[in-house]
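Lab notes, practical 5.
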Amino acid sequence: MAWRGTSPDGELKQPGTYTGYQPSHVSDDGVLVGSASNGPLDEGGVPVIWRFTR
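Output from the prediction step:
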């Protein structure tokens, strides 16, 4: 779930075929960065960028 302020604003789209993914940082312009993996996320993964669009 992505949030804008204190309100839910929608779901993050699954990046490709990766089954696990999580955001870790967000910028002022609505860009979220995180990682995705087909294994445990605490063992690493590939970088992912989500951009907020309406």
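Observations recorded by the TA: The chain has one domain: 2-51. The beta strands are 2-4, 7-10, 20-26, 31-37, 46-51.
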